[in-house]
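The records we work with from here on pair a chain with its fold. These numbers are not coordinates but entries in a learned vocabulary of local backbone shapes. To see the layout at work, look at the sequence and tokens printed below.
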Amino acid sequence: MEKVTLNVQGMSCGHCVKAVEGSVGALNGVSNVKVHLENGTVDVEFNKDVVTIDTIKETIDDQGYDVK
């Protein structure tokens, strides 16, 4: 398993947390996702043989947030 912390801009409330955790958590190969609103970060544990970091970033971007 790979672990990565992404800097994500635009998250500000519980809806943002649910949108990001729900969409990323639904990806095949993602085992854990945790949003930290206070620092604007998202921790993701995933199997790099099943899902790419680019797919994870695109999924967050599709929810309307900027991944830096």
Remarks:
- The chain has two helices and four strands.
- The chain has one domain: 2-67.
- The beta strands are 2-9, 30-36, 41-46, 66-67.
- The first strand starts at residue 2 and ends at 9.
